[in-house]
């Protein structure tokens, strides 16, 4: 607000100086002439700058108007400058007709055209006619009044001094009348763009015209001289016009109102909107615009009455102007009448159109009064609610809404009515409505304001709500068993851990896995497997307590949430939950009747108790760990979670991650352990073994990293690497003259793995040039899930390529006899468990002797693994075992020590006969049996 204050101070200072006479006649003339010229020049420059660069956006269309205002102000500046030239510089009176008159006369026409540019342009031809008629009504009435009061006498007095002087004398007031007419007409038809600047410009021109009218009046014209108070009006008008385009549009706007939130709990009959104050300028302006023709006729009538009352002769100009004003009023009223008839007809058509839309709409449209009483209900209510519209009219809206939804609906309506309509014109409410049959329908309503009340556009969404409920049920339940799925189970576990039961230590999660379910799918089909899952889910649902949750997590995995009963005794809660888990295990392990057959599966259950601060995901994970421990411990059992399970998982995970890094970084090395002929001591073959010495200097035993490798996807990569390294080193030894075969241990599952392509072993032998018999594959005890037909075909293919096959771990697996019967085996390798007790145990001695006798009868060579003491050598040789491998001869050797051993060619074997069984004697070990270190790479 600094700029308006500065402008007011400058204008007040000029008015004060003019009122006091400026202190001297010379200064009064300077301020009255050149001061006005300077102010008009400022206005011209300001409007010109705004027109050339300041007007942007929607204001740019008004640039011609501001250019015309600039030109008009420049004319006023030139006129005042010429006036000052005569009075101040030449020090003589201004001539009756001078260049100043030319400039002053050029002030009004550009301003009039500029006001026309600012006016809101009519759309139709009738609108243009009405604009012209309104302008003439204002101008004609002012001409009639001013001619009656002063202009007639001025015209008569000017006739004696010549036509030119009379014309010039009348030109000023006539142009002012036209300018005033345009100012008034524009006030009622101004454009909405930059309204503040337009209003300020209109005020500036109005002030200038008012001062011009006072100057031309006979009362002041004869006594006027420069520097009087009248000049303050022209000065203020020029500065106000200079300020209009720049300062008026930057006036601060009032901040937006915040919607008030109404309290809850009120009935709709008490819902009333808060009135918002609306500006009164628009209705007042519309009323004055409608009264303009009548006010103009009244002014014209006053002009004629003045002449009659004063006894003057009615001038022909007054009669002519009055008649044209009356004629213009009649024409304008006729146009307005035609417009009203057209608007009435159009309104009737629109009303019929919207009535048809409302009555034909499938949605129910209701109008509620501010008291909550229904004033109108559309005919669609009969089809939607089953109730006639006439029956609903007059009833209370609250009586139709379900009591459980009423409070929420009232709160939303009060909030909506309290919000400003411009910010929130509509709202949406979903609730239950009572139908004609007494049932509750789900109804969605769009609510609008209507004369303090409400308009509700409602539709029946019961089917959509029912379908949405079905979708939500399907999203949270297992489609096969209809038990809660993992998402819903996790949500309920989270609720149990975070609600009022958060401090209850008795809450537990049971993680259940069906043992042997895969065999059911593989043997009798997936349909039978689905039926088994349905029956198991039914048993689980019936076995848990009321309030507990049974769920299917996926596949053959189930879970149960057991809520605590508030007991604080850890032993009591553990006993209670274990009893529930054992009951579930026995229930799920009972035979299942499927297609008339008894199908049996067992259940392994892991139990985890809720602890302070534990989350739902962590609780499920710990129960899962306990379930896996139960499966590893023999299946069909219950295992409680212990913290060391998590530590074991972490260690296994870290070891697996290190294993992946070791494979990429080359931290593995291959050692070879000699296989010795138990009779001659010659080296029959060398067994390749992997060793891992990490970059941190940690030496992992084969049992550690091989167990981790078997449980992750790196096992195939590790087996492939060991085979390639062993074959490559064997080829190098062949070229150095050592023809000893190399044996590599591979499981049947890895040999048939899809990531281990068929033909890769044959291609590896061909690439390195190994002769037939140079590679021995030790086949680990076959997995029962492996197809013997496929395995047999693969081994036959390897035999054709010159690869010899050894059956590893013979004597420990249940499928050994089947393997001997079907697979092409060259060498039987006894399990280490048989060899370790062959001297001390008579039973193991007989079993081992029998197995070796079978190998001999089948014409196979035999190999004992884990021969660590001389007594074992003597005992195995006496039983007919042909070869041995173990610390009794040598531990695993690096490549340097291996070649030295191969050059030596044999190991000393103990002589004599075998020691008696169970003698308890053991002789000294032969040679050095320490594992050789892996050379640095």
UniProtKB/TrEMBL annotation:
* Alphabetized Gene3D superfamilies for the sequence: 3.30.70.270, EAL domain, PAS domain
Segments carrying the region annotation (Disordered) are 254-282
Q: Does the keyword Glycoprotein apply?
A: no
Q: The GGDEF domain covers which part of the protein?
A: 505-643
Q: Which SUPFAM superfamilies does the record match to this protein? A: EAL domain-like (SSF141868), Nucleotide cyclase (SSF55073), PYP-like sensor domain (PAS domain) (SSF55785)
Q: Matching InterPro entries, A to Z?
A: Biofilm_reg_signaling (IPR052155), EAL_dom (IPR001633), EAL_sf (IPR035919), GGDEF_dom (IPR000160), Nucleotide_cyclase (IPR029787), PAS (IPR000014), PAS-like_dom_sf (IPR035965), PAS_4 (IPR013656)
Which keywords fit this entry according to its UniProt record?
Membrane, Transmembrane, Transmembrane helix
Check the record and name the CDD domains matching this protein: EAL (cd01948), GGDEF (cd01949), PAS (cd00130)
Going by the entry's taxonomy, the superkingdom of the source organism is recorded as Bacteria
Residue ranges annotated as coiled coil are: none
Family annotation (Pfam families): EAL, GGDEF, PAS_4
Q: Where is the composition biased (Low complexity)?
A: 259-272
Q: Which positions, given as ranges, span the membrane? A: 27-45, 66-86, 98-119, 126-150, 170-188, 200-220, 284-306, 318-338
Domain annotation EAL: ranges: 652-906
- List each copy of the PAS domain by range: 350-420
The protein's matches in NCBIfam families, at most eight in alphabetical order, are given as:
GGDEF, sensory_box
The identity of this protein, by name, is Putative signaling protein
Species of origin: Streptomyces hundungensis
């Amino acid at each position: 607000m600094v700029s308006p204050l500065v402008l007011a101070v400058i204008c007040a200072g000029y008015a004060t100086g003019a009122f006091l006479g400026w202190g001297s006649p010379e200064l009064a003339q300077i301020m009255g002439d050149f001061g006005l010229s300077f102010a008009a020049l400022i206005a011209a420059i300001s409007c010109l700058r705004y027109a050339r660069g300041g007007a942007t956006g929607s204001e740019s269309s008004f640039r011609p108007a501001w250019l015309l205002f600039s030109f008009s102000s420049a004319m006023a500046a030139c006129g005042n400058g010429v006036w000052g030239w005569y009075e101040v510089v030449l020090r003589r009176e201004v001539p009756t007709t001078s260049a100043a008159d030319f400039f002053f006369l050029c002030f009004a026409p550009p301003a009039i055209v500029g006001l026309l540019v600012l006016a809101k342009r009519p759309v139709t031809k009738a609108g243009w006619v009405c604009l012209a008629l309104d302008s003439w009504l204002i101008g004609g009435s002012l001409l009639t009044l001013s001619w009656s009061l002063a202009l007639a006498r001025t015209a008569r007095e000017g006739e004696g001094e010549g036509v030119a002087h009379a014309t010039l004398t009348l030109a000023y007031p006539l142009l002012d009348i036209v300018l005033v007419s345009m100012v008034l007409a524009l006030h009622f038809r101004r454009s909405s763009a930059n309204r503040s600047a337009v209003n300020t410009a209109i005020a500036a021109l109005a002030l200038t015209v008012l001062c011009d009218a006072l100057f031309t009046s006979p009362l002041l014209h004869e006594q006027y001289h420069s520097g009087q108070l009248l000049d303050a009006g022209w000065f203020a008008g020029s500065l106000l016009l200079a300020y209009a385009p720049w300062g008026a549009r930057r006036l601060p706007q009032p901040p937006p109102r915040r919607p008030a939130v109404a309290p809850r709990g009120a009935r709709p009959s008490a819902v009333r909107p808060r009135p918002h104050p609306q500006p009164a300028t628009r209705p007042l302006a519309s009323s004055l615009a409608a009264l303009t023709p009548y006010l103009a006729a009244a002014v014209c009538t006053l002009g004629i009455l003045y002449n009659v009352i004063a006894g003057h002769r009615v001038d022909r100009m007054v009669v002519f102007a009055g008649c044209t004003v009356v004629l213009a009023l009649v024409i304008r009223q006729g146009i307005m009448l035609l417009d009203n008839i057209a608007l009435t007809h159009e309104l009737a058509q629109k009303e019929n159109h919207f009535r048809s839309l409302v009555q034909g709409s499938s949605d129910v449209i209701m109008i509620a009064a501010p008291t909550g009483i229904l004033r109108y209900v559309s005919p669609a209510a009969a089809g939607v609610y089953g109730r006639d519209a006439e029956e609903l009219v007059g009833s209370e809206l609250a009586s139709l809404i379900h009591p459980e939804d009423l409070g929420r609906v009232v709160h939303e309506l009060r909030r909506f009515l309290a919000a400003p309509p411009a910010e929130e014109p509509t709202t949406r409410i979903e609730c239950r409505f009572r139908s004609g049959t007494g049932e509750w329908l789900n109804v969605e309503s769009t609510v609008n304001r209507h004369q303090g009340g409400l308009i509700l556009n409602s539709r029946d969404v019961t089917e959509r709500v029912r379908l949405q409920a079905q979708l939500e049920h399907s999203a949270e339940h297992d489609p096969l068993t209809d038990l809660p799925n993992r998402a819903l189970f996790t949500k309920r576990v989270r609720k149990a851990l975070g609600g009022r039961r958060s401090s209850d230590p008795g809450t537990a999660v049971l993680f259940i896995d069906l043992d042997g379910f895969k065999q059911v799918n593989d043997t009798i089909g997936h349909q039978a497997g689905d039926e088994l899952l349905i029956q198991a889910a039914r048993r689980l649902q019936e076995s848990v307590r009321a309030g507990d949750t049974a769920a299917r997590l996926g596949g053959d995995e189930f879970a149960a949430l057991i809520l605590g009963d508030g007991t604080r005794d850890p032993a009591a809660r553990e006993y209670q939950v274990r009893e529930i888990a054992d009951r579930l295990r026995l229930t799920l392990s009972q035979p299942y009747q499927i297609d008339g057959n008894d199908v049996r599966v067992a259940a392994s259950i892991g139990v985890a108790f809720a602890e302070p601060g534990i989350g739902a995901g962590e609780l499920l994970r710990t129960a899962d760990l306990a379930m896996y421990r139960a499966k590893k411990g023999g299946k069909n059992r219950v295992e409680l979670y212990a913290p060391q399970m998590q530590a074991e998982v972490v260690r296994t995970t870290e070891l697996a991650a290190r294993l992946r890094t070791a494979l990429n970084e080359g931290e593995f090395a291959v050692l070879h352990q000699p296989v010795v002929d138990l009779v001659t001591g010659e080296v029959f073959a060398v067994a390749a073994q992997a060793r891992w010495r990490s970059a941190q200097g940690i030496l992992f035993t084969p049992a550690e990293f091989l167990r981790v490798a078997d449980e992750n996807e790196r096992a195939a990569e590790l087996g492939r690497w060991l085979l390639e390294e062993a074959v490559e080193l064997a080829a190098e030894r062949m070229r150095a003259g050592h023809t000893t075969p190399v044996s590599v241990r591979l499981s049947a599952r890895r040999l048939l793995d899809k990531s281990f392509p068929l033909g890769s072993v044959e291609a590896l032998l061909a690439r390195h040039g190994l002769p037939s018999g140079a590679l021995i594959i030790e086949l680990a005890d076959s997995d029962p899930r492996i197809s013997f037909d496929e395995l047999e075909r693969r081994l036959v293919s390897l035999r054709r390529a010159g690869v010899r096959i050894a059956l590893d771990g013979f004597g420990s697996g249940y499928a050994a006899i089947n393997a001997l019967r079907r697979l092409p085996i060259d060498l039987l390798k006894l399990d280490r468990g048989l060899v370790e007790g062959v001297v001390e145990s008579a039973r193991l001695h007989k079993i081992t002797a029998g197995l070796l006798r079978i190998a001999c009868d089948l014409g196979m060579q035999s190999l004992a693994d884990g021969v660590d003491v001389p007594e074992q050598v003597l005992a195995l040789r006496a039983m007919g075992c042909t070869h041995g491998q173990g610390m009794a001869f040598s531990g695993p050797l690096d490549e340097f020590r291996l070649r030295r051993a191969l050059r030596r060619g044999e190991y000393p074997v103990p002589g004599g006969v075998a020691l008696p069984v169970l003698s308890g004697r053991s002789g000294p070990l032969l040679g050095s049996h320490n594992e050789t270190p892996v050379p640095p790479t």
